[in-house]
């Protein structure tokens, strides 16, 4: 009996608190209607591309960015850069361009080598997968295999030569840079 009494008392308290909560708060729909009824004043000026002023300047809040002449960190290196002839900069740019072209050439050659090796592996797998082909076309396969191997060796030599040229270019660029910059 006591259990039933406690259960009824507890349920009565839950119902009473639920009724009190609903009486205090209004529904979301009522709140939305009230907000729509409150009219806000429209914005004073709305800027669009059509009415944006083009003849006047736009004020920027804060300090303008420092130019290299005004920069407090401008030191002897900046002065040296001002006095350097522009030919050095263009020759450095040309050297960097040649180096990047050589790197691209090496990457292309390595890609071609990779494709050639993959094709060779596929041909080997096809040849050894079929016993009839092994018996019928031994001469043809040996010629093809010799050609693939020669092509792979040739492509590897081209890559090695291109890498040697790249190292020479990089060394020349280092030497030119060392000659143009004074020892500090």
Query: How would a textbook summarize the main sheet?
Result: none
Strand elements, count: 0
Average pLDDT level: 79
For the CA atoms, what is the radius of gyration? 41 Å
> Are there runs of 5+ residues with pLDDT below 50, and where?
none
- The portion of residues assigned to helices is over 70%
Can you write the helix and strand succession as a string?
HHHHHH
What separation lies between the terminal Cα atoms?
Answer: 99 Å
Number of helices: 6
Provide the structure class.
mainly alpha
Shape: flat
Strand content: under 5%
List keywords for this structure.
single chain, 184 residues, mainly alpha, flat
Structural commentary:
This protein has 184 residues and is an all-alpha fold. The chain has a domain of 61 residues. Helices cover 73% and strands 0% of the residues. The chain is built from six helices and no strands. Helix 4 runs antiparallel to helix 6. The longest helix is centred in the middle third of the chain and has 44 residues. It is flat and about 100 Å long.
